[in-house]
């Protein structure tokens, strides 16, 4: 029995979307923007105190590996050649911090982030306490948090 031929779809583009609740890997045809395959894995979250989110950094990393592997398996089942993936973009948790041991490469603690609603509550509290800021200042703080 002859081996089946892999489909050539032109350059493909992958995207890793690593967020606080899940990780996804998606592969698109770069010429048509058609989604060819994807895989998503939920990530366990811990909330040790109000507004804080903690996650196991190794679980996050493993979820990225798993999503890429499963998506590539699905592409193979569709006879799509994964060597045509020419670029991969990454979207990650900008507000989350992990500290790694520089010698062992092991995380020293969980990944620590905070929820969006906590940020708004803290900002409103600060504005109420100082009474110096007006709406424009609050908007500046909001946008500076996301864009600077």
List the helices and strands and how they pair.
Blueprint: E1 12-18, E2 22-29, E3 35-42, E4 52-55, H1 57-77, E5 85-91, E6 111-114, H2 116-130, H3 135-147
Parallel strand pairs: 1-5
Antiparallel strand pairs: 1-2, 2-3, 4-6
Shape: elongated
Mind describing the biggest β-sheet?
A: 4 strands, mixed
Uncertain ranges: 130-148
Reading off the top of the CATH hierarchy, the class is best stated as Alpha Beta
The N- and C-terminal alpha carbons lie at a distance of 59 Å
Number of DSSP-assigned strands: 6
- Give the SSE string: EEEEHEEHH
Helix content: 25-40%
Oligomer: single chain
* Adjacency order of strands in the biggest sheet: 3-2-1-5
- Under the CATH scheme, which architecture would be assigned? 2-Layer Sandwich
**Rg for CA atoms:** 21 Å
CATH superfamily: ATPase, nucleotide binding domain
Strand content: 25-35%
Q: What structural class results from the helix and strand content? A: alpha+beta
Q: In total, how many domains does the architecture comprise?
A: 1
Mean pLDDT: 81
Give the helix tally: 3
Keywords: Kinase, Transferase
GO cellular component, one term: mitochondrion
InterPro entries: ATPase_NBD, FGGY_N
Family: Belongs to the FGGY kinase family.
């Amino acid at each position: 029995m002859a081996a089946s031929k892999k489909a050539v779809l032109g350059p493909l583009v992958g995207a890793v979307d690593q967020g606080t609740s899940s990780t996804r890997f998606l592969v698109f045809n770069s010429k048509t923007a058609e989604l060819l395959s994807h895989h998503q894995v939920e990530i366990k979250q811990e909330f040790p105190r109000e507004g804080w989110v903690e996650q196991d950094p190794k679980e996050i990393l493993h979820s990225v590996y798993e999503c890429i592997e499963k998506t590539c398996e699905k592409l193979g089942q569709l006879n799509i050649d994964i060597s045509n993936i020419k670029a991969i973009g990454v979207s990650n948790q900008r507000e989350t911090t992990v500290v790694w041991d520089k010698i062992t490469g092991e995380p020293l603690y969980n990944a620590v982030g905070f929820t969006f609603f906590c940020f708004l509550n803290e900002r409103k509290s600060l504005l109420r306490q100082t009474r110096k800021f007006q709406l424009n200042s609050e908007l500046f703080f909001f946008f500076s948090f996301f864009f600077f």
